[in-house]
Design a protein that fits this description.
Elements (H helix, E strand, L loop, with lengths): L4 E6 L20 E2 L3 E2 L2 H9 L4 E5 L5 H7 L13 E4 L4 E2 L2 E2 L5 H6 L2 H5 L5 E6 L2 E3 L3 H10 L4 E7 L9 E5 L5 E6 L8 E10 H12 L8 H11 L4 E5 L4 E3 L3 H10 L3 H4 L21 E2 L4 E3 L2 E2 L4 E2 L2 E3 L2 E2 L4 E2 L4 E3 L2 E2 L4 E2 L4 E3 L1 E3 L4 E2 L4 E2 L11 E3 L4 E2 L4 E2 L4 E2 L8 E2 L1
Parallel strand pairs: 1-4, 1-8, 4-5, 10-14, 16-19, 17-20, 18-21, 19-22, 20-23, 21-24, 22-25, 23-26, 24-27, 25-28, 26-29, 27-30, 28-31, 29-32, 30-33, 32-34
Antiparallel strand pairs: 2-3, 6-7, 8-13, 9-15, 10-13, 11-12
Catalytic activity: alpha-D-glucose 1-phosphate + ATP + H(+) = ADP-alpha-D-glucose + diphosphate
Protein name: Glucose-1-phosphate adenylyltransferase
Keywords: ATP-binding, Carbohydrate metabolism, Glycogen biosynthesis, Glycogen metabolism, Nucleotide-binding, Nucleotidyltransferase, Transferase
């Protein structure tokens, strides 16, 4: 029973640019949008696109991520043949190796892919927020008779040098690849989402593994080698919402965009393309009579007695009477006590913010500062945490951090 296409999801990244948020957590497991984690998006895209076999390649801090994925039931991926499989590095007869790069991670799991004898393999990233129909991508790949296709988005020319860029002709055939060039020839940014014919992918993975000078990376090695050999390579234009949430400002911004789906393009209330997640199991939220809530997402188990404006509150957050939360992302289980002010920041899971403490501040013109509080931190009463702060340890009351 061969599968037409299976997905390989790269979820082993450290996410070091998220600092305090990923000290104990793999980047794909970072909470997003009130009730989700980042990995919910590619998993939901798979099942919505008719892909029922997904290998998830984990490495860094996998415990929470593995527990969250479980048997794949929330995404309808608990299948007898196929379904979701967590694929960490493991000891082999030839020795034990960590995944050395994106291409090497797939190479080490060739035997998993061959179990399903697919015609095509789609390579996905576990650290992007994107709603995409992979079946339309596959249709494009077939129509072009491609051997390799990459999803691309047009970016502003002034930003193009920050991306890997595909130069393509009028038929979308790729003629050149530029990795973060100073003088870009194109504004077609690679999304890091690829479809390969399996026989082509296997050939180039095996050749890459034999090259002692290779970085074992798709962008730096596999794609340039395909170009060198004049393979049939095409750029698939994607026009929906896509954001790499690899930095604190981009993660904060993407959460804020959830609150304005009409203008931002990310609609988590779309019944035609649902994003599935593991249920928190908590009771419904409760907003007290004297509370003030404006343009915010309040999820399961929240208890709101204070003021919440333009913020995203994850499950089980408590906001006491007299507390103010504004332009903030507050993750699950966090307690904000009376009189505390929390503004323009990201607060991780299970944080306690003491009475009359101040965390973050609204930015001045042109500033992009986002205060960040790591998981499990206690901010003491009267403490002041500045707008550029990155806190991963407990802070005593009255101490000021910038």
């Amino acid at each position: 029973m061969a599968k037409e296409m299976i997905a390989m999801l790269l979820a082993g990244g450290q996410g070091s640019r998220l600092y305090a948020l990923t000290q104990k957590l793999a980047k794909p497991a970072v909470p997003f949008g009130g009730k989700y984690r980042i990995i919910d998006f590619p998993l939901s895209n798979c099942i919505n696109s008719g892909i029922d076999t997904v290998g998830i390649l984990t490495q860094y801090q996998p415990l929470v991520l593995n527990e969250y994925i479980g048997n794949g039931q929330p995404w309808d991926l608990d299948r007898l043949f196929g379904g979701v499989h967590v694929l960490p590095p493991y000891q082999k007869a030839s020795g034990s190796d960590w995944y050395k790069g994106t291409a090497n991670a797939i190479y080490q799991n060739i035997s998993f892919i061959e179990r399903y004898d697919p015609e095509y393999v789609i390579i996905l990233s576990g650290d992007q927020i994107c709603k995409q129909d992979y079946s339309d991508f596959l249709r494009f790949h077939k129509e072009k008779n491609a051997e390799f296709s990459v999803a691309v988005m047009e970016v502003p020319w002034e930003d193009a040098s920050r991306f890997g860029l595909m130069v393509a002709d009028e038929d979308d055939r790729i003629t050149e690849f530029q990795e973060k060039p100073k003088n870009p020839k194109s504004n077609l940014a690679s999304m890091g989402i690829y479809i390969f014919n399996w026989d082509i992918l296997k050939k180039y993975l095996e050749e890459d593994e034999q090259d002692p000078n290779s970085e074992n990376d798709f962008g730096n090695n596999i794609i340039p080698n395909l170009l060198k050999d004049h393979r049939r390579m095409y750029a698939y234009h994607f026009n929906g919402y896509w954001k790499d949430v690899g930095t604190i400002p981009s993660l904060w911004e993407a959460n804020m965009e959830v609150l304005d789906p009409e203008h931002s393009g990310i609609n988590l209330f779309d019944d035609d393309w649902k994003i599935y997640s593991r249920n928190s199991g908590m009771s419904g939220h409760k907003i007290s009579a004297n509370a003030v809530v404006e343009n915010s997402m309040i999820t399961d188990g929240c208890r709101i007695k204070g003021t919440v404006k333009h913020s995203v509150l994850f499950s089980g957050v408590q906001v006491a009477e007299g507390a103010v939360v504004e332009d903030a992302v507050v993750m699950g289980g966090t307690v904000i006590e009376s009189g505390a002010v929390v503004k323009h920041c990201i607060v991780a899971e299970n944080v306690k913010i003491g009475e009359n403490a101040v965390v973050g501040a609204m930015p001045k013109d042109g500033e992009q500062c986002v205060a960040t509080i790591g998981s499990g931190v206690t901010i003491g009463a009267e403490a002041v945490i500045g707008p550029n702060a990155m806190i991963s340890d407990n802070v005593e009351g009255g101490e000021e951090k910038w």
